[in-house]
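Recall that a protein's primary structure is simply its ordered list of amino acids. Everything else, from secondary elements to tertiary packing, is in principle encoded there. The following example makes that idea concrete.
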Amino acid sequence: MAAKKTTSKKNAKNNIKTVERPVTKAEKAKASKPLKIAKPKKTSALDAAAIVLQKAGKPMRAMELIAAMAEQKLWTSPGGKTPHATLYAAMLREISEKKADARFKKVDRGQFEFRK
């Protein structure tokens, strides 16, 4: 295990032995890891749906939202078969969890609008 020397000018002048302390695992790991470059965050389906609803200014269904998000190049499905069902469930979950602070409001069966 490598050791790190800790000396000071005062110790060198007085001819005192230096104290060696072992290098910790955290110090080793920190020294060996390359720096990570922060990637820009992708827009989530919920964020994209909020943007589309806000621009539209009218209630929309989940399937319409998915089509509009893809058309505006805000979000596309990564290959799922039912992205509209996933979006619908996520919007309902946000409404039930956040209550008045939710970005969405259910106005009719299957239709959501942006809460102002």
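Residues 77 and 83 are 6 Å apart (CA to CA). The mean pLDDT is 86.
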